[in-house]
Amino acid sequence: SAEASASVVFENLKKCSPKCLSLLLENISGLTVDDFIVEVIPEIDVAVVTFMKSIDTEEFVKKCSQHKRVKEFKMTARLLELTQTIKVENLPDNISRDYITVYFESPRSGGGLVSDVQLFPKENSAIITFSDHKGNT
């Protein structure tokens, strides 16, 4: 079977504050606030929840779609797509492609085999592509 993402995207957060969302996540998952990370992206009215403890995210998304409060808030939940590419921002000036490659291939950094690095010096950012999605953690 396909590997499920450890992250869930919540959309349409207008009626649910970040604190309310955290409480809702605790209620639905049975976990505590220390077991997940919530990143709110207000520009697009979504939050990405990454579970630090092992959880069946597919089952969690099903529970969310059936939960009374989630329906009342008109929110939706879906698995975050697994990707092989990430964007890294706020890089130091004059960082080298080789340094980025070695850093993101380090198991200590949660990395994996890097297949490509595109540097954007004016933005102090880079696009890193891994050989598979397991490197982007």
Describe this structure in words.
The chain has 137 residues and is of the alpha+beta class. The protein folds into 2 domains: 7-79, 2-Layer Sandwich (Alpha-Beta Plaits); 85-130. Helix content is 26%, strand content 28%. The chain contains 4 helices and 7 strands. Strands 2-3-1-4 form a 4-stranded antiparallel sheet. Strands 5-7-6 form a 3-stranded antiparallel sheet, covered by helices on one side. β6 (114-120) and β7 (125-130) form a beta hairpin. The protein is elongated. 15% of the residues are buried. The model has no long low-confidence stretch (mean pLDDT 89). It comes from Pitta sordida (Hooded pitta). Residues 4-81 form the PARP14 second RRM domain.
CATH topology label of the largest domain: Alpha-Beta Plaits
Strand content: 25-35%
Percent of residues in helices comes to: 25-40%
Give the CA-CA distance, first to last residue. Answer: 20 Å
| Contiguous helical run count | 4
The gyration radius over C-alpha positions equals 17 Å
Mean pLDDT: 89
Query: Which structural class fits the helix and strand makeup?
Result: alpha+beta
Q: Uncertain segments of ≥5 residues (pLDDT<50)?
A: none
Oligomer: single chain
Total domain units: 2
* Biggest sheet record: 4 strands, antiparallel
Placed side by side, the strands forming the largest sheet appear as 2-3-1-4
Total strand segments? 7
Based on the structure given, which CATH architecture of the largest domain is correct?
Answer: 2-Layer Sandwich
Q: What's the CATH class of the largest domain, please?
A: Alpha Beta
Shape type: elongated
Output the helix-strand order. EHEEHHEEHEE
Pfam families: RRM_PARP14_2 (PF23245), RRM_PARP14_3 (PF23085)
Protein name: PAR14 polymerase
Domain PARP14 second RRM: 4-81
